[in-house]
Structures are given as C-alpha cells and as structure tokens.
C-alpha cells in the first residue's frame, strides 16, 4: 500500500498543477486601456489587388488597344545631376537670375531713386493728387538723369575705343614710314625684279 500524503503536500500538488502565468493586460484595467489606445503600427499596404471583374476589363482593353505608354521624363525635367560631376553637399544650384548688381556707395542718383521708390511704396498716407503727382515726377526725373548718365558713359566708352584704334593705326603708320626712310635706295633696287637677259651665241 502507498504511503499516505500529508495535507500540505496535497495542497501544493494541486496548486502546482493549476498555476498559470497571466499577463498584466488581462488583470490590470489601466494597462489594458493603454494598450487599447496604442496606434496600429503595421502600415497598410498601398497596393490594392484589382477585383476580378476590373482585371478582366483591363485585360480586354489591353488586348484591343494595346498597353498605355507611360510618359518618359528627360534628365532635364527630372533635374538629375550629370554623371561624373562632384556634388558638394548642401550647395543648391541657383536657377534664374545669375547675380546681384551692386550699387556704388557714392552713386547719389541711384541711391536717391531707390530711397524715393521705397518711400513711395511704403507711404500709404492719404495725400492729394498734386502731391502724389509731384512725388512721381521727382522719381521720373531721377530715373531720367540716371539713364542719361548711362548713355553718356556708353558714348564715352565708344569714343575711347575709337581713339585707341586711331592711335594704334597712326603708330603703325609712323613705324612703317620710318622703316621705309631707313632703307637705302640700293636695298629698294635689290628688291625690284631683275630683267632677264638672253644672249645668242
């Protein structure tokens, strides 16, 4: 006959058999609520499988009319960098206007024009038509003076170039004359072609 078990042994045996590991989520309501509020982290697939009817329709259309040609973009449109070119990081190529035109510090006309045009844009004070006309006339006058000065500079540059060419030509002419005077008459005669003499025996 088997030995008799004590009550404590029996109790421990039954407890060991039924013991389970339960997570906090099922037992703790607070943890369960936090888990419920978690966002769904697995992203949905963007590729949707077409339905059977739509697929048949598409296949029939391809069979009849052929596949749709996809537009091919050129490298210029895609703005791709050319091969074998070093691309410095962080440097963005500027497109459009090439550079800024800097104004000379002592250029009073341009400064006046800029100040007046900026003031004209900023001043939104109610003024009479006469005052407005007067202000606009001042701006026009400054612009006209600026244009005149530009034209004058262009003309003077052209005149300087003409004078430079004239000076070069005259210097070359004087040099040729000096060289011609320096040569003796004998040298000039030597340069002339000699008459051929024919003797009969």
UniProtKB/TrEMBL annotation:
Its main location: nucleus. Belongs to the LOC1 family. The keyword Acyltransferase does not apply. Residues 45-54 have a biased composition (Basic residues). Residues 14-43 have a biased composition (Polar residues). InterPro entries: Loc1. Residues 1-60, 150-201 are annotated as: Disordered. PANTHER family: 60S RIBOSOMAL SUBUNIT ASSEMBLY/EXPORT PROTEIN LOC1, 60S RIBOSOMAL SUBUNIT ASSEMBLY_EXPORT PROTEIN LOC1. Residues 150-170, 183-192 have a biased composition (Basic and acidic residues). GO terms for cellular component: nucleolus; preribosome, large subunit precursor. This is 60S ribosomal subunit assembly/export protein LOC1. One of its GO terms (molecular function) is mRNA binding. It is found in: Nucleus, Nucleolus. GO terms for biological process: intracellular mRNA localization; mRNA transport; ribosomal large subunit biogenesis. Keywords: Coiled coil, mRNA transport, Nucleus, Ribosome biogenesis, Transport. It comes from the Eukaryota.
């Amino acid at each position: 006959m088997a030995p008799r078990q004590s009550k404590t042994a029996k109790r421990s045996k039954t407890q060991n058999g039924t013991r389970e590991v339960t997570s906090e989520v099922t037992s703790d309501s607070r943890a369960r609520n936090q888990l419920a509020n978690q966002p769904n982290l697995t992203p949905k697939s963007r590729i949707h499988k077409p339905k059977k009817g739509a697929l048949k329709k598409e296949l029939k259309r391809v069979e009849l009319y052929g596949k749709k040609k996809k537009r091919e973009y050129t490298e210029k449109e895609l703005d791709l960098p050319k091969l074998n070119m070093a691309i410095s990081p962080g440097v963005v190529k500027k497109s459009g206007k090439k550079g800024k035109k800097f104004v000379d510090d002592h250029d009073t006309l341009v400064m006046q024009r800029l100040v007046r045009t900026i003031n004209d844009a900023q001043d939104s004070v109610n003024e009479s038509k006469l005052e407005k006309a007067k202000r606009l006339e001042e701006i026009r006058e400054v612009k006209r003076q600026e244009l005149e000065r530009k034209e004058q500079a262009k003309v003077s540059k052209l005149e300087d170039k003409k004078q430079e060419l004239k000076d070069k030509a005259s210097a070359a002419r004087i040099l040729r004359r000096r060289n011609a005077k320096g040569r003796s008459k004998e040298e000039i005669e030597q340069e002339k072609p000699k008459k051929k003499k024919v003797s009969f025996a």
